[in-house]
Amino acid sequence: MTEKKTLKLPPRVAPTADAPSRKPARPGAQQADHARKTGAAASGGKRPDAEAERAPRVFGERKADDRGGRGRDSRDGFSHTGRRPAAVSSRGTGSGGVVAASNTLRPNQFDWTAIQQYYAPCPRGLEQLLADELANLGAQDIDVKEGGVGFRGLIDLMYLANLHSRIASRILLRLDERAYRSEADLYRLGTRTDWPALFNVERTIKVSVTAQRSNLRSLDFIALKVKDAVCDIFRDACGERPSVDTHAPDVRIHIFMTDRLATLYIDTSGESLFKRGYRQESVDAPLRENLAAGLLLLSGWNGHEALHDPMCGSGTFLIEAAQIALGLAPGRLRRFGFEGLSGFDAQKWDGYREQARGAARETLSAPITGRDRDAVAVESARHNLVAAGLDHLVDVQQGDLRDTEQAPAAEGVLIANPPYGVRLEELDALAEFYPELGNVLKQQFSGWRAWLLTGDLRLPKLIRLTPSRRLPIYNGALDCRFYEFKLVAGSNR
Ligand SMILES: C[S@@+](CC[C@H](N)C(=O)[O-])C[C@H]1O[C@@H](n2cnc3c(N)ncnc32)[C@H](O)[C@@H]1O
């Protein structure tokens, strides 16, 4: 078990217009207050984060009087009394962490047969493509947001979206949502889900948090509170708690917070969907697979035209292009988080995979080729092609694009993300390289459409071509442009 031991100081709740007027208590103060009320020993003066992974707890409060009780949890050394924990008051006080000693928790049941609400994050700039993709898979109530798409559908859609989406980074299944003011509210949110009905206590968990304009200061502390809530629900149900694994958890739980609303998700994908399962070798700055697939689709390449990447690096464009052309499901080579959930229907899943296999084609109708001047990059691309089962279909050669003597076909789509620079000397080298790139495009690729992804806004001017399209795209945090240049004969400015 790997528990997170170092946490930031617990946050204070900054007062908001409609927040309670009294000064909100820090969790440490809440603990002392609770100790006064219950007669329990408080961890007075200690940082609650230092206490967090050592003290036993009863629903949101760490109670020193549990120490040394029966029912030691063998995996984390926590001791607990074995009695049924008290329930969290549904009323609360606004100061957080208040425990009512009477009711037993009755978390919401998850209905595997109901229509579910999902959210799929994706690279910014690809939201509409993702929405179209999800609509094709049968998603309803599609809601395009910046950086992702909300949608609804049966649990079957979870299998299909994970298996077939080329653009989504994850498929998150919404479990619950509530307004919040304090960390205690987030703890309560975590106690409203019947976790033992979703996965076995033997599964390891990780809780992550993202926030937009939240007044709560420490996302780590929120993650800790929600993790506590999950563990407390398990303890209540079966006397055991799941272990935390921050590196390769079986189950990922995600909280998304706006300034007043917190949404609780279970991540049905597990590892990010851009990890297709074929990347064996890598080079510097490989493109994420879902971004590469999205750019191919944005370019309008139809799978029946030649495709060439003259600076292919680890071959991401080439592999994604071949998968698109053959209709291969991007998730066919990997496992998913939902396979560890209790409602996982292996027979249904096998059926969907089988269906996808049956629909795939075996041969390309136009060549897909790549080139890179770096021998390591070429080797990496070839390894990845082998892992994807596509090495017999895609040709990669070592060579400098400036030495290109003939395009691989009379027309087609050239796509690449050229090297980019940060330091001055790199920028100077690129300023020399771009005109040469422009010359090769004009001289060797007339009749083609070239699409280049770059964060370097000097590129069109320096390659001396006028872009016919200029699409804003984020490559991670990097603000980029995806330029199209139509290379007709004599296409100089
Ligand atoms: C940003 S990387 C491309 C990454 C690639 N799209 C991937 O996903 O792995 C740029 C690549 O351009 C290659 N390159 C740079 N200058 C080149 C040139 N003159 N001819 C051919 N390849 C070049 C580099 O070796 C590097 O692999």
TrEMBL record:
Keywords: Methyltransferase, RNA-binding, Transferase. It is an enzyme of class 2 (transferase). Residues 86-100 have a biased composition (Low complexity). Pfam families: RlmL_1st, THUMP, UPF0020. Residues 1-100 are annotated as: Disordered. Residues 157-268 form the THUMP domain. SUPFAM superfamilies: S-adenosyl-L-methionine-dependent methyltransferases. One of its GO terms (molecular function) is RNA binding. It comes from the Bacteria. Its EC number is 2.1.1.173. InterPro entries: DNA_methylase_N6_adenine_CS, RlmKL-like_Mtase, RlmKL-like_Mtase_CS, RlmL_1st, SAM-dependent_MTases_sf, THUMP_dom. CDD domains: THUMP_AdoMetMT. Residues 46-78 have a biased composition (Basic and acidic residues). The keyword RNA-binding applies. This is Ribosomal RNA large subunit methyltransferase L. It comes from Amantichitinum ursilacus.
